[in-house]
Design a protein that fits this description.
Order of helices and strands: HHHHHHHEEHHHHHH
Distance between the termini: 34 Å
Largest sheet: 2 strands, antiparallel
Strand order of the largest sheet: 1-2
Length: about 240
């Protein structure tokens, strides 16, 4: 059954963790609209839920090839590649989603930008350095003073609390600090990324608690749920 839920589109409209941001929204299709691309997307979603990540990636790639404007095809292709351990390729899909939704300065794309960095942090030494450079750029101040006037330095900085989350991934902000706010309004994104980061560092007990908090509080048709399940499966397979 094709499940085109309104909730899954909340990736586009996710609340910034805190603060203000550019409010440009993605205006293209969230899901694939053509029958062939839709069929591949549906099959890919089923394979992803079953943990068959290589097959899921193949299906989502075919969906993307047929209808590249569908946002969630890129996002779920990234999830499948992440689950398959192809972290650099996953980062490329998340980067594409970030660019499609306006770049790091827009709050509809911030989660995809951070996903790009989180994926690179799982890759080679070069990719990890790329992640650090991205996070440094995105967590820098977005406003500069010229004389007595404040000017925008562009859309490179992440909005609001996303900037703080980037600082956490760089090791500059404590876990207690990053988890200390109302997650119900912010979509439990911080628990997701803190869980992923703890898993990356081998802190499986802490990662498990964070990721299960995500599962308990987000919709099961959404990509946050999918990613939490992917990481929990990975930890279980590692023992």
């Amino acid at each position: 059954m094709k499940r085109h839920t309104i909730y899954a589109a909340s990736a586009l409209l996710a609340l910034a963790i805190a603060g203000c941001a550019t409010t440009a929204e993605y205006v293209g299709p969230t899901f694939p609209l053509t029958p062939a691309a839709e069929d591949h997307y549906t099959t890919g979603t089923e394979c992803l839920a079953q943990g068959r990540y290589e097959l899921a990636a193949e299906e989502f790639q075919q969906s993307v090839d047929l209808e590249p404007a569908a946002l969630l095809s890129h996002v779920r292709l990234g999830l499948a590649l992440f689950g398959d351990g192809r972290f650099g390729e996953a980062a490329g899909s998340f980067q594409h989603a970030c660019e499609m939704t306006g770049g790091p300065g827009t709050w509809g794309s911030a989660s995809f930008c951070v996903l790009q960095a989180a994926s690179l942090m799982r890759g080679s030494d070069i990719e990890q350095e790329q992640a650090r450079q991205l996070l440094k750029a995105w967590s820098s101040p977005g406003i500069a003073m010229v004389g007595s006037s404040a000017i925008s330095t562009g859309s490179g900085s992440l909005p609001g609390g996303w900037k703080k989350l980037a600082g956490y991934l760089l090791g500059k902000v404590s876990e207690d600090d990053i988890l200390g706010f109302d997650h119900a309004e912010a979509g439990y994104f911080t628990y997701l990324f803190v869980g992923l980061d703890n898993a990356r560092r081998g802190n499986h007990e802490e990662a498990d608690a964070c990721l299960r908090t995500v599962l308990a509080n987000v919709h099961s048709d959404g990509w946050r749920y999918d990613l939490a399940k992917i990481e929990l499966r990975r930890m279980a397979s590692e023992g």
